[in-house]
Structures are given as C-alpha cells and as structure tokens.
Amino acid sequence: MKKFIDKLAYIHIQDKKILMSLSKGKSTWYIPGGKRDKDESDTEALEREVEEELSVNLISESFIKYGVFEAQAHGHPEGTVVRMTCYTADYKGMLKAASEIAKLEFFPYSRKSESSPVDHLIFDDLKKKGLL
Fold this sequence. Notes:
Layout: E1 3-10, E2 13-14, E3 17-23, E4 29-30, E5 33-34, H1 42-54, E6 57-58, E7 64-72, E8 80-88, E9 91-92, E10 101-107, H2 117-128
Parallel strand pairs: 1-8
Antiparallel strand pairs: 1-5, 2-3, 3-4, 3-10, 6-9, 7-8
C-alpha cells in the first residue's frame, strides 16, 4: 500500500530560474515549502512555511495554484509517495534564508539534477511551459 506525504511548494520564478532552498546539513535542494499543520489550509500552511524559511510574507490574494505532482519521496522507503501541491504568489519583504535553511539560489533548468525526484517533475513541467 502506498503511503502519501502531503506537502506544499512555493514556486517563484525570476529570469527563467526557480527559487530553490538548501536545508542545513543536506545536499539535496528543494523547492521551498513544507507540510501543513493540523487544520491548516494550503494557503495558511504555505504562508507559514515561506515566512519561516524565506523571511517574506506571501500575499494571500495573489495565490495561484500551479499544479499537483507525485513522485517517490526522496530519502523514504520505496512506495512512499510525496504529493506536492504547488502555488505561485507575490510576496512582501526581502528573500533571506531563515530557520533550517542554509542557502537560497535561483536554479536554471540545467541544475535540475541537484533537486529531489518530485522537483524534477516540476522542473520538467516549468520547462515545457517555457517558464524555465
């Protein structure tokens, strides 16, 4: 039986590059976001996670659902699937790595291999749509 990990991701594109985050002590880059707390909506969870990780405040009215992607969860037993619900949104503030995040960088498509399997699907989709 498949086990699902429910995650949310914040897609921020600049100059055909996507914002990626590297957690302290990790070698794989991830699209910023995380898991929801009990009873949080997608937008509430993503607003909280992005503020914790990136030091900016997402603007609630600007949220646009980008899509949902599923893949084998990185670093989890076979059959564990991450379901990533992705959104774009505008923000207030200056992007700055915070909390457990060591670094933020904008990745071109050519750096896709440094990210997790579910992020590969998102990179491919963004590339297909001409966004990366």
